[in-house]
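name: query_chain
kind: protein
chains: 1
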Amino acid sequence: MPFRFMDEITTADVAFEAWGSSREELFISSAAALLCTMSDAPERVEGRQEFTIRLEHEELDMLLFSFLQELIFYKDARLLLLHADRVLIEELEGGFLLEATVSGEQIDAGVVCSYAQADAADAVVLCVFSAVSASGEKRKI
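structure:
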């Protein structure tokens, strides 16, 4: 699993550490952790609907926050649970551009968990911006 929940940090919200070998993998891992807070069985969320999310931000950490908030918005406003299938991040002058292909399906009582519903008030508590090299060493990305 490219993330782990950090129960020792908070009892009210959800905290997790996510990692990947690139910025893109880190964002996909973070989206996977978020989906696990919305569903007991994220592997059962099928890619019945697919679309692209495009976001820009000056800071990489805020781009991740905006991306996760966008996934929460789709859950709240359109009742969609989404996987991040592909993420591309382009570094621009003065910021970053994200283009993510996401897929998922409408919320179903058999797929959604009842105890850990992420919503706009449950902001990401901790995201670790690092990559793991082939030797296992963490580095800032």
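note: The CA atoms of residues 108 and 130 lie 34 Å apart.
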